[in-house]
Write a structure and sequence with these properties.
single chain, 366 residues, mainly alpha, 70% helix
């Protein structure tokens, strides 16, 4: 979900393991989401696979990667100004997100014959509170908050590193306060003001600030060329794939209750997986090409998979769900990934290129 241009080593070149993990994380979200969607009417009414928090763990990997990449972009050898940073992220993230939000809401209106503009407008504005449609935009909302806080605390004459560090570790304290004070609304607020504070200080049950923070630490270590983040393992594709599968299985099999330890567990394993992505290398070949393809298309896969899955579910329902539910889920996952790749090639990439050309023309005119 983050800018591929940030996943570069100080000496240049894409960090391949990070790109592979972006693709794997997106696929985890797709698998979990499709498996859950078929449990709803008019689909099969039950999920064929017990996947626990598979999708949320994929998002935890995304957040660690996001913290890592934002740190490299912000403090690397070729530092962007605050304006350059936000302009580049805007071009890379927002126009395509707008296309996806509009497309999803038009599909929803066509399928339900109901018009509900507010969730879509919130999604387009990355509004910090309230329902979003599509719901997957919530991760971009939190990514925007982290980028803004980083800019406000670190891109200034006197960096306020302690405030950023406090934000990284705030969620466990927030969670503990809700329990010690017997104040459940602190985690599930009803008022708008408390909801905004909760989104910034706690996030949600994932405690995403922790994952951003661990990515920030990995990014600083990488920029300092610390030995702990130096290349040491070959076969990055197979290594990161195996690590993602194993970590997902461990997270799904343990600490499934809604408690603070679960978020710490997610953060620990997501950090270890991303660290493996940083320190592993891959020679040119089919595995590398496949990993880069999935990583490059991960943003498109993530944003469009829900719409693709919903369309497939509606078609299946009209045919009275002829396939076994497990086979339908597997087929829908594959189709959603392929659709995301095609949309990346023919919509996302051309749109980003057009926006960048437009920005350069305006710079020349100015």
């Amino acid at each position: 979900m983050t800018d591929i241009e940030g996943a570069r080593s100080p000496k240049g070149g894409i960090v391949p393991g990070i790109q592979y993990l972006r693709g794997f994380a997106a696929i985890l979200v797709v698998i979990w989401h499709v498996n859950w969607l078929v449990s709803l009417p008019p689909s099969y009414g039950i999920s064929p696979f017990a996947l626990a928090e598979t999708g949320l763990f994929g998002v935890a990997i995304f957040f660690v990667i996001s913290g890592f990449i934002i740190t490299i972009v912000s403090f690397g050898p070729i530092r962007a100004t605050r304006t350059e940073f936000f302009v580049r992220r805007f071009v890379r993230i927002i126009p395509f997100m707008w296309v996806c939000v509009i497309g999803y809401n038009l599909l929803s209106m066509a399928g339900t014959a109901r018009i509900d503009l507010l969730p879509g407008l919130r999604a387009m504005a990355l509004w910090p509170i309230g329902e979003l449609r599509p719901h997957v935009v919530w991760t971009l909302r939190l990514d925007f908050i982290s980028s803004t806080l980083l800019a406000l605390t670190m891109w200034r004459p006197g960096p306020l590193a302690y405030l950023l560090a406090a934000w990284f570790v705030a969620p466990p304290a927030w969670f503990a306060a809700s329990r010690l004070l017997a104040w459940p609304e602190l985690l599930q607020p009803e008022s708008s003001s408390l909801a905004l504070a909760t989104v910034v200080g706690y996030g949600n049950i994932m405690m995403p600030n922790l994952q951003f923070g661990m990515g920030f630490v990995l990014g600083l270590l990488w920029l300092k060329a610390h030995p702990i983040v130096q290349n040491r393992f070959p076969a990055a594709f197979l290594l990161t794939l195996a690590a993602t599968i194993l970590a997902t299985a461990l997270v799904g099999a343990t600490l499934s209750e809604d408690n603070g330890l679960r978020a710490l567990w997610w953060t620990l394993f997501a950090t270890l997986v991303v660290w493996l992505g940083i320190v592993s290398t891959e020679a040119p070949g089919p595995w590398h090409s496949l990993g880069m393809l999935l990583g490059n298309a991960s943003y498109s896969i993530y944003l469009t998979h829900a719409a693709t899955a919903v369309v497939l579910i509606q078609i299946s329902a009209r045919l009275h769900n002829p396939l076994p539910s497990a086979l339908f889920v597997m087929m829908s996952v594959i189709v959603s990934i392929l659709a995301g790749i095609l949309i990346h090639w023919y919509i996302e990439q051309p749109l980003i290129a057009w926006c960048r050309r437009l920005g350069r023309r305006r710079s020349v005119v100015a």
